[in-house]
Amino acid sequence: AYARALQSSNGRAGDLGQLLEDVQVSDTDWQDRIGLLLRAGHQSADASQKAVAFLRAARIARRYAPHEVEGLLAQAYGADPSSTAAAALYETLLVESERTDRILDEQRRVLESLKEPAARADAAFRFGIRWVLRHQNLDLGAQLLEEALRLDPTRTPAFAFLRDAYGTRSGDWNRVVQL
């Protein structure tokens, strides 16, 4: 149990005690623990802490209530779009069940919920990179990277990718000039 908690802590010893409690829940107290984590997630003002609480609840649910895992991962994903762990777990779940369209739906929902242009640009950039690298969908990734560049013209990595994709590979230099 200690080794599993240590693995989940990502090297942060401060979280180790709580993670050890998560690993040691039993079939009699798992619902109370998930309830505690959900309350903590909903009450937290910090996006990262929200996502971590929902991820911890999902890990417990995976053992005792697998049908609840997707909803918990969706909450973690929506709470902190920059969370690599939430993205990897949620997107993998959807890909494995052949529902990649839900990934884009959720990403669009997250982008619409972000009011600050810098936050939207950051999320669109992250989503675009994920589509290009993880899901191997260059067209969708390019659309999201264009959105990130439109919101924040200083995003040099987005421009460099789009220049390469549209100009160098496709020969559409007019499109590059429009960017």
Explain this structure.
This protein is mainly α. Helices cover 76% and strands 0% of the residues. The chain has eleven helices and no strands. It has helices at 2-8, 16-23, 30-43, 47-64, 69-79, 84-96, 100-113, 117-133, 138-151, 156-169, 173-178. α3 (30-43) packs antiparallel against α4 (47-64), α4 (47-64) runs antiparallel to α5 and α8 (117-133) packs antiparallel against α9. The mean pLDDT is 87.
Task: Please sum up the structure shown.
This protein has 179 residues and is an all-alpha fold. It has helices at residues 2-8, 16-23, 30-43, 47-64, 69-79, 84-96, 100-113, 117-133, 138-151, 156-169, 173-178. Helix 8 runs antiparallel to helix 9 (138-151) and helix 9 (138-151) crosses helix 10.
Give, in order, the helices and strands. Answer: HHHHHHHHHHH
Largest sheet, in brief, is:
none
Q: What share of the residues lie within helices?
A: over 70%
Q: Which range does the strand content fall in?
A: under 5%
Number of strands: 0
* Helical stretch tally: 11
Contiguous uncertain segments of 5+ residues: none
* Distance from first to last alpha carbon: 52 Å
Using only C-alpha atoms, the radius of gyration works out to: 19 Å
Q: Let me know the average pLDDT.
A: 87
Helix/sheet category: mainly alpha
Sum up the overall morphology in one term: elongated
Summary tags:
76% helix; 11 helices; 179 residues; mainly alpha
Question: What is the topological layout?
Answer:
Layout: H1 2-8, H2 16-23, H3 30-43, H4 47-64, H5 69-79, H6 84-96, H7 100-113, H8 117-133, H9 138-151, H10 156-169, H11 173-178
